[in-house]
Design brief:
The chain is α/β, with parallel strands linked by helices. The protein has helices spanning about 1-25, 30-50, 65-80, 95-110, 120-135, 145-155, 165-180, 195-210, 230-240, 255-265, 280-285, 300-310, 335-345, 355-360, 370-380, 385-390; strands spanning about 55-60, 85-90, 110-115, 135-145, 160-165, 185-190, 215-220, 245-250, 270, 290-295, 325, 330.
């Protein structure tokens, strides 16, 4: 009898508790209930749609030179557009340092690496280090020897692809421009003998200027660094005061060459590959007749290959392999140098727009494919195409299937020495700009 009484009391208490809960819910104001539902909905959406964040290591052959700093700026900007963290390291023009930086990135726990391999022997070691550590990597701008790259990446599932400028074409453009301007002789100035990046440009220049144009290369000066440029140019031009043209294999050798001419009282037309901030004013005033532009555009495209691989949607070529893509540099002269400056060297502006960068990433564009990349590298990165994308009415919304846009403020990156690279959150600073 006592047990029955206790059961009835417990049942009554449960009923009263349930009734109290219902009445409290009914008493809640409609706006409070709506706010709670919206908050729950936002939380669920954020959890479902937030793309993963990565720490990306990237190196450049040096720091403090516009050539290499421009490359780093474009990678920083690309990672910022994707809302990711970046860690930058300088190789200090040393092969040993280049390999050490790859090892440091891995030790620091990066999720992926956009590597530039300027010293060809480093590539097999760097690729093996990534394979052993299961770190995906892509290569941009300096991509090592073609045969070595094909060998060491053939069975490496962590290789996401390579994007570079066609340096033979870069040199060819300059040789053709010099020949079309009527010059019959030329001297060359540039980096170390045997450096494949310079040798490719020389081969292209020779084809256009000598083989097709009937000109003659009468001498050349090779430097271990741009710091030797003026001294080497002075000696070269003192010996060939009547030469028709000067070909600078990279724009950083232009200021020293022009200073040498001013000292010697000469005014010889200059043609320069990799037209950077050092020489755009010389193009405007006519001291440089033509330059090659677009050499650092591969950096951002290579980063996109890597992020797609990390997101589980690798870009593969028609043979199911990680792609090797080439971008053709374009001619910059007095006719288009203002457009070049406006899209490449105006503060706050970058040549590849955010819309274009996002079209390369699966998390923003579910239709991205190998064709998306080949169309961009094939015809979408000419100066004319870049200018068109910067026109006010050219911006297009990202596809409906895209994930929500991430904060596009740049990751503040720090130079890395032998210690583990330092990183900052992506919304900590504004993107770097070209000088």
């Amino acid at each position: 009898m006592k047990k029955c009484r206790i059961s009835k009391i417990a049942l009554l208490a449960a009923f009263v508790l349930a009734l109290t809960t219902v009445l409290a819910a009914c008493d809640r104001k409609p706006e409070q209930k709506q706010e709670q539902k919206q908050e729950e909905s936002r939380s669920d959406a954020d959890t479902a749609a937030a793309p993963p964040s990565y720490l990306i290591g990237f190196n450049t052959w040096g720091a403090g030179s516009p050539v290499f700093d421009d490359m780093a700026v474009e990678i920083e900007y690309t990672l910022a557009t994707y809302g990711l963290k970046g860690s930058r390291a300088s190789d200090e023009h040393l092969a040993d340092k280049e390999l050490q930086n790859m090892q440091n990135f891995i030790s620091a726990g990066v999720d992926g690496i956009v590597m530039q391999i300027t010293a060809d022997p480093v590539l097999p070691q760097a690729a093996k280090a990534c394979l052993d550590s299961r770190i995906p990597f892509a290569m941009g701008i300096f991509i090592g020897d073609d045969a070595d790259r094909a060998t060491v990446t053939a069975d490496n599932p962590y290789y996401a692809g390579a994007v570079s400028a066609d340096l033979y074409h870069d040199g060819y453009l300059m040789g053709k421009a010099a020949a079309e301007d009527g010059h019959k002789t030329a001297v060359l100035i540039g980096g170390n003998v045997g450096d494949n990046h310079f040798e490719q440009r020389i081969a292209g220049f020779r084809q256009a200027f000598v083989t097709e144009g009937g000109g003659e290369i009468i001498d050349e000066a090779r430097c271990t660094s741009p710091a030797e440029g003026q001294e080497k140019a002075t000696a070269l031009l003192s010996a060939h005061r009547d030469v028709g043209a000067i070909y600078a294999m990279v724009g950083v050798y232009v200021p020293g060459s022009i200073n040498a001419m001013d000292i010697l009282g000469l005014n010889i037309p200059v043609y320069a590959s990799n037209a950077n901030a050092d020489i755009v004013d010389y193009i405007k005033n006519g001291r440089v007749s033509a330059g090659g532009g677009g050499n650092d555009l591969p950096a951002g495209v290579a980063a996109a290959l890597l992020i797609n691989r990390l997101d589980g949607h690798p870009i593969l070529d028609e043979n199911g392999k990680a792609p090797d893509l080439k971008i053709n540099p374009f001619l910059v002269n007095k006719d288009n140098v203002d457009d070049y400056i406006a899209t490449f060297y105006t503060p706050g502006t970058h040549p590849i727009t955010e819309d274009v960068l996002k079209s390369l990433l699966w998390r923003f564009n579910k239709d991205v494919s190998y064709k998306t990349f080949t169309e961009l590298t094939g015809s979408g990165l000419t100066l004319e195409a870049i200018v068109a994308k910067h026109a006010p009415d050219s911006a297009a919304p990202t596809p409906d299937s895209a994930a929500p846009e991430s904060d596009s403020a740049a990751p503040e990156t720090q130079e890395s020495d032998s210690a583990a690279p330092e990183t900052q959150e992506p919304d900590s600073a504004a993107p770097g700009t070209r000088e």
